[in-house]
Specification:
It is built from six helices and 20 strands. By secondary structure, the protein is an alpha+beta fold. The longest helix has 16 residues, at 13-28.
Length: 284
């Protein structure tokens, strides 16, 4: 390893302390530390500040120091580069993180010797077409969400799969989740838990005002089109980032993106073992 990128949650003192520890470790091992220019005020002493667009190209791996939100931000910053992203938990649950804060130096020792595995995680591509406006494109590691912007109302979304009409949802919202995102928002509305290395998408309504309330698990080759069919605007979120409001006639197409995200997993731990540990599941 010659260079490591750091992305830090500025609102967590524990994450800022992790950044200082990581920078000290890198200094001891003659490894340069790179930070993105947009990460204001989060530059450890001696760090190399680079433009966001060049951040991923100059590093061997990127450390995400914080919780799951920081991990999502980090992936968005480096995607579609194949540079591995390593999560060090400086937050709470930290389901996406491979290591806890107490393991930082040990984790870096392991990473330097190659004692880790990289998982290719499915990314959802979201293409937004609005009449009279330029087409927009977003990518998410967890999910795309279309939901009501205000309480006391529902949204109406016409759903087609591969261009063939499926049904119209009247609901608080609709989630299109990746396998990684199956333990995020869609988990809270009782969607299925999916092995994170699978290549598929899960379509789940949020509080539907209709009899059909089941999730759909769709193959990687299938595209989901969601169209706004009345004058009630719909808020669009990608991995928790609000990307705007959509009016009547807008269409969102979701599919599995061509390039996966590269996420480091701890060696020797399988998906089910991590799931059990994070949710403190008993043996029996």
């Amino acid at each position: 390893m010659q260079a490591v990128g750091l992305v830090v949650n500025p609102e967590r003192p524990a994450a800022l302390a992790l950044a200082d520890r990581a920078a000290a470790w890198c200094s001891q091992h003659a490894i340069s530390v790179h930070v993105a220019a947009s990460e204001h005020g989060l530059h450890p002493t001696g760090a190399v500040v680079v433009a966001d667009a060049e951040f991923a190209a100059g590093v061997d791996l990127v450390l995400s120091l914080g919780g799951d939100g920081t991990m999502l931000h980090t992936v968005a910053l480096v995607y579609p580069s194949p540079v591995p992203v390593v999560g060090i938990n400086g937050g709470q649950l930290g389901y996406l993180n491979a290591f806890e804060a107490s393991e930082l130096e040990t984790a870096l020792d392991r990473l330097m010797t190659g004692d880790f595995s990289v998982q290719a995680r499915t990314v959802v591509e979201c293409v937004v077409e609005t009449p009279g406006q330029p087409t927009q494109r977003w990518f998410g590691l967890n999910e795309v969400v279309l939901e009501k912007p205000d309480s006391g109302r529902v949204v109406r979304l016409e759903v087609a799969i591969n261009g063939v009409a499926f049904t119209t949802y009247a609901a608080d919202g609709v989630i299109v989740a990746t396998p990684t995102g199956s333990t995020a928002y869609t988990f809270s509305v009782r969607g299925p838990i999916v092995s994170p290395t699978a290549r598929l998408l899960v379509l789940t309504p949020v509080s539907p005002h209709m009899l059909f309330d089941r999730s759909l698990v769709l193959a990687a080759e299938e595209a989901i089109q969601l169209s706004v069919i009345d004058d009630r605007s719909v808020a669009l979120f990608v991995d928790g980032r609000r990307c705007g409001e959509l009016g009547a006639g807008a269409r969102v197409t979701c599919r599995v993106a061509d390039a996966p995200a590269s996420i480091v997993a701890p060696s020797g731990l399988g998906f089910h073992e991590i799931l059990k540990a994070k949710f403190a599941l008993p043996d029996r």
